[in-house]
Amino acid sequence: QWVYVNGEFVEKENAKVSVYDHGFLYGDGVFEGIRVYDGNVYRLDEHLQRLYESAQSIMLNIPHTKEELTDIIVETLKRNSLRDAYIRLVISRGKGDLGLDPFKCKKQGVIIIAEKLAIFPKELYETGLEIITVASRRNRPDVLSPKVKSLNYLNNILVRIEASLAGVSEALMLNDQGYVAEGSADNVFIVKNNVIKTPPGYLGALEGITRNAIIEIAAEQGYDVREEPFTRHDVYVADEVFLTGTAAEVIAVVKVDGRTIGDGSPGPHTAKILQYFRKSVVKEGVK
Ligand code: PLP
């Protein structure tokens, strides 16, 4: 397996960065997770747009144009003979000294890893997920915006720790006002009486590329789709709940904080949306 590290392709075992890289020392950098379906990079423009906006927000220079990054991504896929893959694109602040000062880091790090995706076990899509809500809160958007997909995922890691300790594989974070924000690595949707709701970006969630695709697909299918705040109560009494993300795609949630959702199995709306999503992904990609 070949990994792109700062201008060259190296074998996975030799893909290394400096211990002085501020991405490692401080989580100072940004990243994207991108899917490749049958040789098509899914919604690459949107991922690159989000990457450049994340970088702009934290004053991080990306030492490539979008076209250059696209070429490197395509080359990485070719070198690894991958047609279905998960791509991790990382821009780190680069090597500095032990101080925080990012302006001492003169050369930003660029890393691209492409791998076969270890998709969630198929049975999880058939049975649905059990999740909980946790004490960890999404960081406030007025400080560091959750729209910045930064390398500092401690918030999300704390959520995963709480989830694991409770014996479940994912959890929902609330924002500082108690509204539902998102999962540790995915966005959340609820369905009630044919109305589909997902929290608006301003509540404090990453604006997921999959989330945006699902909003479009559901609207095309005639659903009333709303970006509207909701609380845990609304989740508990929903007909269906599902999560969306690049890795997870669309996955049903059947239990939240011990409350059974609907009849306790993945519902027809979630199944329909997943079906249309899977149909759309190949069509839409960039060859
Ligand atoms: N929310 C968080 C915190 C994430 O890390 C991710 C994954 O990237 C998502 C939501 C889903 O976003 P996307 O659909 O762009 O993968």
TrEMBL record:
InterPro entries according to UniProt: Aminotrans_IV (IPR001544), Aminotrans_IV_CS (IPR018300), Aminotransferase-like (IPR036038), B_amino_transI (IPR005785), BCAT-like_C (IPR043132), BCAT-like_N (IPR043131), Class-IV_PLP-Dep_Aminotrnsfr (IPR050571)
Cofactor(s) the protein requires to work: pyridoxal 5'-phosphate
Pathway: Amino-acid biosynthesis; L-valine biosynthesis; L-valine from pyruvate: step 4/4; Amino-acid biosynthesis; L-leucine biosynthesis; L-leucine from 3-methyl-2-oxobutanoate: step 4/4; Amino-acid biosynthesis; L-isoleucine biosynthesis; L-isoleucine from 2-oxobutanoate: step 4/4
Keyword Amino-acid biosynthesis included in the entry's annotation: yes
EC main group: transferase
Domain of life: Bacteria
Catalysed reaction equations from the record: L-leucine + 2-oxoglutarate = 4-methyl-2-oxopentanoate + L-glutamate; L-valine + 2-oxoglutarate = 3-methyl-2-oxobutanoate + L-glutamate; L-isoleucine + 2-oxoglutarate = (S)-3-methyl-2-oxopentanoate + L-glutamate
Pfam family, one: Aminotran_4
Similarity section: Belongs to the class-IV pyridoxal-phosphate-dependent aminotransferase family.
PANTHER family for this protein: AMINO-ACID AMINOTRANSFERASE, AMINODEOXYCHORISMATE LYASE
Name of the featured protein: Branched-chain-amino-acid aminotransferase
